[in-house]
Structure formats: C-alpha cells, structure tokens
Amino acid sequence: MKQAAAPLFFGLLLALAGIGLLASPLGVRLEEDLGLALLFKLRGPVEPPGGIVIVNVDEESAERFGYPENPFKWPRDVHAELIDRLVDYGAAVIAFDVHFADAKEDKEDRKFAEAIRRAGNVILVQRLLRRQVTVKEAEAGPAYDLEVLVSPIPVLSDSCQAMAPFPLPKVPVRVNQAWTFKNSMGSIPTLPVVALQSGALTRNKGFFSCLEDTFPDAFTASPTPVAQIAEQEGLIEAMRQIRLLLAKSPSSPTGISLLSESCNLMSTADMQFLRAMIKVYGGDHHVYVNFYGPPSTLPTISMHRLVMPDAADTPTLKASIKNRMVFIGAARTSWSEQKDGFHTVYTRPDGLDLSGVEIAATVYANLRDDSYLKPLSFPASAAVLLAGALIVCLLSFPLSPLPAAMALAVYGGAGLAAAWFLFSHHHIWGPVVVPLALIPATGYLTALIYKYVRSRRERSHMQKALELYLPDSVVEEISQDLDFVTSGDRMIYGACLISDAQNYTTLSERLDPEELSRVMKDYYSILFSQVKKQDGTVTNMIGDSMFALWPSTEPKPELKAKACQAGLGILEALHTFNEAHPEHALPTRIGLHSGYLLMGHIGAAGHYEYAPVGDIVNTASRIEGLN
C-alpha cells in the first residue's frame, strides 16, 4: 500500500495541476497553437466536400480583362456579367466576399444591382470596423470601442437577398475560430451562416414553416411567423429572431423525426440543411474551423473563365456551378499578390495564407456537413487528464528511469494515435499538449526527484543505523565505496582503552534477560559518554567488555592523555553508579596502551567485523586483566 500511495498521491496532484492549466488562458493557448497544429499536421490535407466552388477574382482575370490588379477598381458591369452567367449555370447561392463600399459610374452600379435583383440569391459582404469613440463629460471623457457595420452602396444593398459581415478572430495571430453570430452586434449572423440559410430556402421554400413545426414551443413566443418577418424585415432579422428563440432550445432528434411527417416534400438533402441550421441557431456563437488544406484546396475557378468562357469549356463550367454554393473573392496563389490573407495552420512556408473567401467557404462547408471541430468537453478533458496523470505516475514511480521512459513513450504514442483518430474521423479535438507532453514530462521528473530524495533519506537512515555499530569515518567510507570492506585495512597509531565488568557473569545468572539488558544499557551509557567526552571512538563491544580508540596518523602525546582522562572519568562515574545501585554494582577493570595497530574488516564468506588487530590490543587486554 505504501508503494502505491506515492504514485497515486502525485498522480492526483499532477492531474489537478493539469486541469488548472487546461482551464487557464495559457493552457488554451498551448492547445490551440501547438496541439491543434500537430493534429492538423498528422491528419494532413483532406478531400474537400462537394457542393462548393470559389470564383477567384485573381490577377490572371485582371490581365484578361485589361483591368488593374486591384479588383475594387474594376467596373461593376463585369460583376453583373458574372452573376448572369452563374444564374444561367444554375448556381444555388452566390456570396460575394468583395466589399462594394464606394459608388462607381451610376450606369454600371445600376446594371450590377439589376443583375443582383434578377438572381434573387445574392449575398453581399459587409465590412465590420472598430472605432474608438470618446464620450465627453466636462473637459475629458472615457474612450469606448464601437463596432460599426459598413454596408455596400445603397443601390446594391437594396437589391441583394441579404448582407452579412465575415469578421475573423485573430487573437493573438492565427485564425482557429470563426463567428457564426456576432453577439456584440445584436446576434447578427455572419456570411457563411447566411449563405447556409439561403441555401436551405433555395432548396425548400417552406423551411421556416418546417422549423416552426419542429419546435412549436420555442416559436410560441413570436406572434409573427418567421417567413413573414423575412418578407417584411429581411432575412437577417428573421435569422436573428430564430437565433433568440432557439438559442435556449436544444436540438431534438425527436423533433426532426416528426418533421419528416409534417413536411412530406423534405428530401434527405433538405433534412441535412435543417439539422445544420438547428445546430447553428441553437449552438455557440463561434466554431473551431476544420481546415481542409492549404490555399487552393477548395475547387476554384478563375473569374475570367466564367465571364469570357470558351465554347469547349462551357459544359465543364456548367457542371462545376450547377446547384453549387458559389463564393466570390480574391484567393491569391502567391504571397506577393495577397492582400486579404489570414494566418492559419495551413499557411505555406513561403508565407501564403488562406484568403478570406477560402475561409468563408470552409466555414460554410463545416456548418453544412456538421464537420467543424468539436472541442472535447471540459469534464471529459479533465477525466482524460486524471487518467493520464495516474497512468504516468504508476509507470514512472515503480520502474527504473530507462524502462519508465520507454513506457511513457508508448503511452504518449497510444494517446496521440487516439487523439488523431477522434480528430480525423469524428472531428473531435481533444487536448494533446497537456496530457501527452507536459504531464508525462512532469510526472517522470517528479518520480526521479522523489526516488532521489527517498534514496538519500534511506542512505541517511542506514548511515545512522551503522553509526551505532561502526565509527563514523568507516560508515562514510562504506557508503561511498563498498569495496572498502575488503580493501579498507589501515595501519594507524592509536591509544587504546579496554574495560571489563567484574561481576557481569554473576549478574547475568541472577537477573532475567530484560532486566540485565536495562542494567547494561545504563552501564554502557556511562562508559560511552566518557569516551565521547574525550573525543574517542568506541569500536567494539563483547558482552561486558568495551574497546575504545583514539586514532591518529602519527604518535601524539595528547591522545594518551585523553585516553587516561576517559579511564579516570569512567571509574569516577561508575563509582557513583555502583553506590546508587549496590544490587547491580559492576566494578570495572581498565587497561590502557598505545602504539601502531591495524584497523580493518575481519571476517570472510559475507560476514565481517570492523576491529583493531595487533600486539597493542593484546597488551592492553592483558593490562586490563592484571588490574
């Protein structure tokens, strides 16, 4: 139990630290910047979904048209021709990621507006600007950030089906998320969401009625039908109302099942749009973007091919556009041309970013196919961290460093494979950096430190235990090198003191073992204290006999003096002891001598004793016997 307590304790502690880190902005940043990028790299680019095409307002088209490279300087009639062609080819919805904020020649603008009105399925982008506004109070006032929507020119705004912004959160640098609704602007939907809703209405004019039939309880709060709101106040206002009504109402599979009975004309594809819109309306205001690959991954057609089509190219173009969601914008193919680029996980090494129109099309596909990334819920992530921390500590603490490192490598590989599988096949994004990198590294290092501290403590305990039987210097030598047991014999000079209790045999026959042990402990405490008082070392005890030594590398008169002082102190202290305990009196003989002797480990076959050897020892023993 004690061996399992340490890894369990440190595992729980490590899990709590990991959960706290994962909940912090630093942990989120680590997982987004490192973990998410790693998963995208492991997965690699994937085949983009169908039903989407990008019309590229590119440099090649500018050259073919004879226009400036900047598309904002192009005449508007070329966009009118583009819309007419797309309608002729059967485009489902047309979304412009080109902001028409400035008026051109009136004739061109009106021609463009008429083409938009005839199409009936064109969505124009709005620009979202942030301005600092100062509220004056007396002479000074605080400054506030104000978000302002800049719409296209009125003649175009009045002609399109809807207008929507497409701002992207770029904090701190890389785009990982996209807004579906901009809460700071009154929950207005963004361009991909409006395009999705427009596509649903294009497929099924009764979409709003079906939605109301699916969630009757949610829509009882609105006295006006959603379709009527869309007709009178516009599609954006209708979508805002649906968002407010469904935001608190979870999507219900039962409701969708009932819908198929109440809307017999709804096809499987229509159901896909309905499910997607329900999740968007009732979901969070932002999603994590599931990028399909680097720039130019999505099907892209240069604008000049549609405005100035070759006869041989027409069938291919019609097949590429029919019933497709068409996004129009500048998707550059080189870094030098790029003006509307965003740094993402698929930014190319040469600096080419994904363009805004490519990200808009990607988000649309993510929402339509329910393939946007779903971060693992915090409770599930916490459970992963808890299990991971316990596994790491249960591997790191019992095993030696190398096997533990190998086991942790296997654990990390298995965890990364599981994270890749969920990410690639189920669009679930689980934490990677904290559970598979930081926790294993921290757990492994903690185990090493714990083992080091424990070994130092055990060594200290062992040294203290050995010091009860061996001189301190010998214990230190053995702890540094065990070979000292067989090679540590040394010739030294020393003063020797040998003592012997006269009545020990009689006393041992008269007392029981426990009482005898208590008396002898009191007796030896007197002897040892006097030897230690004079800086001597007790090297051996046999029964009632003690051998003490004052060692040196060369003869020193003060050693003899200290040995004599110790002997006198022993006799004096024992005299007091014997008077206080006459029934246990132990008169003691003492022998003293000095000279050269060998200190070493005497023994063989795995059993040794550290003892003095030489004539000096024998002489001191004979002197003791004569007293």
Q: How would you sum up this structure, described in words?
A:
By secondary structure, the protein is α/β, with parallel strands linked by helices. Strands 1, 2, 3, 4, 5, 10 and 11 form a 7-stranded mixed beta sheet that branches. It has a 5-stranded antiparallel beta sheet with strand order 17-18-16-19-20. The protein has a two-stranded antiparallel sheet with strand order 6-9. A hairpin with a 5-residue loop joins strand 7 (181-182) and strand 8. The longest helix is centred in the C-terminal third of the chain and has 35 residues, at 433-467. It is rod-shaped.
Topology:
Layout: H1 2-23, H2 25-43, E1 52-56, H3 59-65, H4 77-88, E2 93-96, H5 106-119, E3 122-134, E4 143-150, H6 154-157, E5 162-165, E6 177-179, E7 181-182, E8 188-189, H7 191-203, H8 207-214, H9 216-219, H10 226-233, H11 235-246, H12 253-262, H13 268-282, E9 286-288, E10 300-302, H14 303-307, H15 314-321, E11 325-329, E12 341-342, E13 354-355, H16 356-369, E14 374-375, H17 378-396, H18 401-426, E15 428-429, H19 433-467, H20 472-480, H21 484-487, E16 490-501, H22 504-510, H23 513-533, E17 537-542, E18 545-552, H24 557-580, E19 588-604, E20 607-613, H25 615-626
Helix pairs in contact: 1-2, 1-17, 1-19, 2-18, 4-5, 7-13, 7-16, 8-12, 10-11, 11-13, 17-18, 17-19, 18-19, 19-20, 23-24
